[in-house]
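Q: Hi! Curious about what 2-(R)-hydroxypropyl-CoM dehydrogenase looks like structurally. Here's the sequence.
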Amino acid sequence: MLNIKTGRIVIVTGASQGIGLAIATTFLNHGDTVIGCAYSDIQKAPQAQQLLQQFPDRFVYHSVDVTKTEDISRFVELAEHQFGRIDIVVSNAGKNVFKGIDCDEEDWQHNFNLNLRSHWHLAKCCRPALTKSQGVIIVITSNHAFSTMPGCAPYNISKRALLSLVQSLTIEWGPEIRTVGIAPGFIDTAGNQAWFDSHPDAALSRAKTIAKHPVGRLGRSEEVGDLCLFLSSDAAGFIAGTTIVMDGGRSAIMQDPD
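A: Let's find out. The predicted structure is below.
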């Protein structure tokens, strides 16, 4: 069994639900301390409330608007002040901004503030602490960074840019800080279920989507958490400057099955 040291201080953004919540839970179950944040107040984040009840000594939650650089700076300052160090940063916060390439400037700017600039600024704020701890940054992007569909701009454009962010952080901040990216595909979250439910036949829509994945199923949020746990460990110490696609083989298909 892989031996991964415990007791680390981990920042996870977008930790109130979905993939971010699963990542936070994985590190907590492993014995680490997690400082999580999301846009929602804790009163409107019932799943984060459950983590606070389950791990009262090792989970902290803050409401942070990551489109505001001052909010990110304050969040990192609080985390380092409370725990004295930061060992791992999982930069996960973001959302689908599917407006199409003809989107207006407001949507374009909001997308890049949320899905690109926030990751860059979080990394900059955490750099001094991570340099001291010889820490790890994990950037969560998307398989849309590699190939996309009509109507998914400008989201896919910012996600593509995150590939370069991972590379630049690696070559400019290494070897003190190791950076790696993860590009999840279709993960079975409440948000994606809402997308299925928007179709006339939700069950049929789900079945068609599953059929497009060679592994025969959708991804689980917990699998992203497990990959984060591995990539943050010394066992993954030679993995840097790259983004790992986890999409159930979806990107290997040249043409969808009928």
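A: A fun detail: The first strand starts at residue 9 and ends at 13.
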